[in-house]
Amino acid sequence: MDPDAVTPFTIDVPETELDDLRRRLEQARWAPEAPDADWVRGVPTSYLRELAEHWLHAYDWRTHEARLNQMAQFTTTVDGQPLHLVHVRSPEPDALPLVLTHGWPGSVAEFVDVIGPLTDPRAHGGDPADAFHVVAPSIPGFAFSTPVTEPGWNVDRIARTFAALMARLGYERYAAQGGDWGSHISRQLGVVDPEHVVGVHLNMMMNRPSRDDDLPGGLTDDEQRRVDGLDEFVRDGQGYQGIQSTRPQTLAHGLTDSPVGQLAWIVEKFRAWTDNEGTPESAVDRDHMLTNVCLYWFTRTAGSSAEIYYEQNHPSVQLQDSTTPTAMAVFPHDIALPVRRVAEQHNRIVRWTELDRGGHFAAMEEPDLLVGDVRAAFRELR
Predict the structure, then answer these.
(1) Which of 85, 105, 120, 99 is nearest to 266 (CA)?
(2) Is 150:89 a contact under the CB 8 Å cutoff?
(3) Per-residue CA distances from 175 to 77, 80, 97, 153, 191 (Å)
(4) Half-sphere CA count of 379, side-chain side, radius 13 A
(5) Are the CB atoms for 156 and 192 separated by under 8 Å?
(6) What are the beta bridge partners of residue 7?
(7) Average pLDDT of 148-170?
(8) Cα–Cα distance between 62 and 68 in angstroms, integer?
């Protein structure tokens, strides 16, 4: 067998897995409600029960599996690691290749509404000159990019692997885009493969001055609000990261055994990190969100997807400055908002867009805004 082969792949979850999921949801044991049935202590039991009932009785995995399979998918092996990828070529001959990278707790399911407009803008009311060939890999340890058989899969190694993947696919010049871990990986692609990466587009960046007096003239009021927002996230919103960066395998046992546990672990972030009106589905379609959860559940990747946190912190990895042209799209309800003057100290910022709505899961929440900004960012870099 050719070790460099890129093999077509179709998602086909066995019916026995669906039966097992139904049984576990039917037999779920429910935690008592917290003293105040609000989201401040985590996912309310009443909300979670209702969402699990929808998963059991109304959600149809086969419908959404078929939708995922409308995107051309493949598997290959790079650096000894099985990789799953969506690879959709544009009908436009001069399209620019684009690596599109998800994060946690996301997956390639995030991209079902953006791949069409990115690859075929002519068919979606756009300019064909803005077309991309899209390559969207599952990060090692996520979904079908498994098993992970050795340690060391930090951001740098993943970026080098994705660079090798693009070379294998025959792309000499390409762009990179990502949010969450995808933002770190996309940025690092520009660091490790600058001779091939024409530019990077990010929709997340978490930064703050190293000292309060690190910026000339001190912080503006807006910059101070952004720093305060990041500090608040570190104080009250980063518990999941503490667990996943220290004991991911302990967490894995509970989430791999309980679909309700896996659902709660993910849906809490869809509520906390989106531009919503009190519930996650006011920002992201409920079934779309459940499809993303299903990819974690059916592939048993609660633990392996958390390993990137462990690897990036053992030892703690300090990323290098980047000289690759970088565009930043700031969605106002993301985890924390970046300070541009800090970003400019470590990146070659060529475009900075402050958007008026949307949050962390930009491709799911505001696909049109994300597509529009990606198109604009790379017009001058093709």
Answers:
(1) 105
(2) no
(3) 22, 25, 6, 22, 12
(4) 12
(5) yes
(6) 75
(7) 97
(8) 10
Q: What is the radius of gyration, based on Cα positions, of the chain?
A: 20
DSSP line for 99-131: EEE--TT--GGGGTTTHHHHH-GGGGTS-GGG-
Higher pLDDT, 217 or 20: 20
Asked if residue 379 has pLDDT above 90, the reply is yes
Could you tell me if 264 and 43 are in contact, meaning their C-beta atoms sit under 8 angstroms apart? Answer: yes
* Residues sharing a CB contact under 8 Å with residue 156, sequence separation 6 or more, in sequence order: 188, 192, 317
**DSSP sequence for 291-337:** HHHHHHHHHT-HHHHHHHHHHHHTTBPPPPP--SEEEEEE-TBSSSP
- What is the SS3 assignment for 195? coil
Verdict on whether the full-model pTM lies above 0.90 = yes
Computed over every residue of the chain, the mean pLDDT equals 96
Q: How many CA atoms lie within 13 A of 131 on its CB side?
A: 19
Tell me the pLDDT tens digit for each residue of 199-227.
999 999 999 887 766 788 889 999 999 99
**Contacting residues for 331 by C-beta, under 8 A, at least 6 apart:** 203, 275, 355, 357, 358, 359, 360, 362, 365, 366, 369
Question: Structural domains in the chain?
Answer: 7-378 (3.40.50.1820)
Residues recognised as catalytic: 180, 309, 360
- What's the pLDDT score for residue 212? 64
Structure tokens at 247: 């004991």
Which residues touch 237 (CB under 8 Å, ≥6 apart)? 272, 335
CA distances from 216 to 205, 338, 341 (A): 21, 17, 10
Between β-strands 81-88 and 197-202, what pairing exists: parallel, antiparallel or unpaired?
A: unpaired
- 3-class DSSP state for residue 58? coil
pLDDT band at 63 (very low <50, low <70, confident <90, very high): very high
